[in-house]
Amino acid sequence: MEFFIFLLIVFAYVVPMYVANAAPILIHGKKPLDFEKKFRGKRILGKGKTIVGTLAGIIVGTIAGLLFSLIFPHVFDLIPNYYLLIFTLAIGAMLGDIVESFIKRQVGIESGSFCPLFDQIDFIVGGFVLSLIIRIPEIEIVLLVFITTIFAHLFFNALSFKLGLKKVPW
Q: What count of Cα atoms within 13 Å lies in the side-chain half-sphere of residue 150?
């Protein structure tokens, strides 16, 4: 696969997932997604997952993917059904983060606590898994996205913390 085409496909996946994951930091609301309910005596998701934040992630992630396709319309030649793929990537990113929060709460890890690797890849796992209903990505794309996401996620979270957008640097 030509390098430019490879990078275009990588970014076609990454843009909706990364933006969906980042949007709730800026647009988060107050009403918790779990309505403060408990499962097995523990919060289902915790205070960090809100209805507005989840919807913002899906909407803004989808819009980012649409903007990407306007800038790089060639992506439609490479990825049929790209509009559907964008939507599943954004929803999947949010679902991955939600599932990770549920697991963390159930094993006793408090909301906002650092969980190495799990915190960095939850949204990517969710995005890739849900997007499988539209397209199976090349293994090279999956590997590159996972490896770069681990480092990029740590960097951008630390930056968000320094800018006062997050309460913790992870």
A: 9
Q: In degrees rounded to 5, what are phi and psi of residue 39? A: -130, 125
* Nearest CA among 129, 124, 119, 127 for reference residue 157: 119
* Distance from the Cα of residue 49 to its chain's centroid: 13
Helices and strands in the chain: count of H runs, count of E runs: 6, 2
* Residue 71: CB atoms within 10 Å: 10
Structure tokens at 170: 């992870």
pTM (two decimals): 0.91
Give residue limits of the domains in the chain: 3-162
Amino acid at 51: I
Where does the pLDDT of residue 117 fall: very low under 50, low under 70, confident under 90, or very high at 90 and above? confident
